[in-house]
């Protein structure tokens, strides 16, 4: 076996977005494309020689091939050991868990998350640091800078590994261990949650459906829910990870998980429904004939946290991304703890968690998590809900309605305009920025603008500043409209419009969401000129 040094040329556009580098599979299949990015990661790390790297992905098309390449490049770079999930599989939260548990230097996760897979779908790669979380912007920008000058990469010429057999081997002097992808993670869940109460809940006849969406959460959900907690066989559906996710969008929202939503609305509906995404870090929670918004889910978990063993001592603070509803802020105020508002992207929670300033974090994009790892965590959220349902004996709907009665309801929706012409989307945002100074004081469709800005965040731990993180219009009654361009799309631009209206009066908690938000929807179009500028008259996806 030998280490080869191969000449290459930079590829344009290898800048990591909201969550790593995501591109079409066809882009990643170009010769040297993946290798260039991996070499740029390795070149940006200091002190990695002899250290451990964790490696795995969500099993999508191209996953196995990429794993083989990265292992051979890790050996050429001088890592001491690589831990690989069997079959090349590790969910994003399980990878974070493994980095922390094994004291690894970092990890590489291969996923394009909720984006579709298969040869015509998307692929992605993300580097996580030693705390288990996504690399902060300082590192992702260094990686990007390196991609622009790279002239060669190093790779072992060793033969492919057998990824399917648990055990140890060596490759050009580097140890390789194939680990069970579920074991470490399942142990962590058992330590955090009251498994006995949840087991008793299932034993009493409580029913649920977990939709794995043919993504990587299936094996985790099967082991934990069916084997460890005694949920009946068949509780987990679409539980086999497939390279193309069965042709679906593995995105747990009411649009892409329509099958689960329909089942939860049917006469056979079980007590509880949940789904997770491609790499198992997102979650959707559904009650019988009752959907729960991710923003409400975060707020409700926070209120009930002390019912759960892992959070018995209380929470130090809550963190939410800026577009996420302010429901969690009200809970934080009631608990007397701070609520931090960060830009979109899980990487912004890392410092707050490391510093012990926040315990729970969440985003409107169906992500929630805590300081147990440094990624959002789909199965964790499901277990948290199950724990709360088990110890309160209440239904999902009752818990949510009681929450609204106490704190008020934050009507919330996100409108996505996908694959919009990039130039038109940029012009729309530039036009909005140009208007910001003139908006405060104006009354639009009955809403008076109290604040209009382009969100900037100063990290309270390291003082780093992130600008241009979304246009925010905040109205005098606390309602908000936020505009952002997605940082995870792979086709044109995706415009996201986030709408939030607060309603304190329980007599007004039963309006259909889009109806309750209709005034704000009109404001958004009036201010941004969405229809005129994008030629889109309705969103592609409404969640
Ligand atoms: C990623 C990030 C999340 C973010 C989401 C949407 O999630 O980790 O923090 O909220 O993308 O980002 P954007 O609005 O820029 O598309 P995932 O599950 O795709 O890794």
TrEMBL record:
GO cellular component: cytosol
Record field: transmembrane: none
Membrane listed as a keyword: no
A GO molecular function held by the record: phosphoglucomutase activity
Main EC class the enzyme belongs to: isomerase
EC number: 5.4.2.2
Catalysed reactions listed for this entry: alpha-D-glucose 1-phosphate = alpha-D-glucose 6-phosphate
Cofactor section: Mg(2+)
Name of this chain's protein: phosphoglucomutase (alpha-D-glucose-1,6-bisphosphate-dependent)
InterPro entries recorded: A-D-PHexomutase_a/b/a-I (IPR005844), A-D-PHexomutase_a/b/a-I/II/III (IPR016055), A-D-PHexomutase_a/b/a-II (IPR005845), A-D-PHexomutase_a/b/a-III (IPR005846), A-D-PHexomutase_C_sf (IPR036900), A-D-PHexomutase_CS (IPR016066), Alpha-D-phosphohexomutase_SF (IPR005841), PGM (IPR045244)
Keywords, in A-Z order: Isomerase, Magnesium, Metal-binding, Phosphoprotein
GO biological process: carbohydrate metabolic process
Keyword Transmembrane helix: no
Family: Belongs to the phosphohexose mutase family.
